[in-house]
Amino acid sequence: YFAKEKVDIAVIEVGLGGRLDSTNIITPELAVITNISLDHTNILGDTLREIAFEKAGIIKKNIPIVIGEKDKETEHVFLNKAKAEHAPISFSNIDLTTQNINQKGNLLILDIYKGNEVLFSKLALDLTGTHQIKNIRTIIQTALKLRELGYSITDNAIYSGLKNVKKLTGLQGRWQTIAKNPLTICDTGHNKAGITEVIQNINNTKHQNLHFVIGMVKDKDISGVLAIL
């Protein structure tokens, strides 16, 4: 379908896991694996290592792979698979750091460093949840790797794109304010890792009374999430 429509670039999101997902028939220019957390355990496995093994299934021969977070429990799974496939691998939270983080109105403002060098100063993101600080490193690392592959991605395009994510993509439910009186915020977090970030955002938001409305499907770790809340 994408070939028929003659798209320039197709960004393909894995449906579930990776190794056995239908999207794994493609050979990408670049593969990206974000943070690993316990989710879909009835299908993917009960440990982070087992889940990482399924995710690592998208690593292809000689194709660069960007990993969002280096974690002791999962890094060897990715390193071993990348070595077997001769795939150049990088961990964005090792290569890049975020500094001078603050919120200005409806924007998250931060600097991106590579070592002691500032790559992007006062980068503004219209998604303000704390988890975006992790995501932003993965995004920037991905853009830098695409540049290495010969793609023309200007700094201006990165600044503009990240400042207008919601407008450009229609993305909703990422620590999104839907009403101000009373302050009402919705978030699509649905596992312990996601809800931990939600709690951090709640703690950073001034309030006297707090009410939760929660909906979860039955394959989620409902008791684990409720314990955090």
Tell me what the structure shows.
The chain is an alpha/beta fold and 229 residues long. 34% of the residues lie in helices and 19% in strands. The protein contains 9 helices and 8 strands. It has a 3-stranded parallel beta sheet, sandwiched between helices. A 3-stranded antiparallel beta sheet has the order 4-5-6. It has a two-stranded antiparallel ribbon with strand order 7-8.
Protein topology:
Elements: E1 31-33, H1 41-44, H2 48-55, E2 65-67, H3 75-85, E3 89-91, H4 92-95, E4 97-104, E5 107-114, E6 117-125, H5 132-148, H6 155-163, H7 165-169, E7 176-180, E8 183-186, H8 192-203, H9 222-228
Parallel strand pairs: 1-2, 2-3
Antiparallel strand pairs: 4-5, 5-6, 7-8
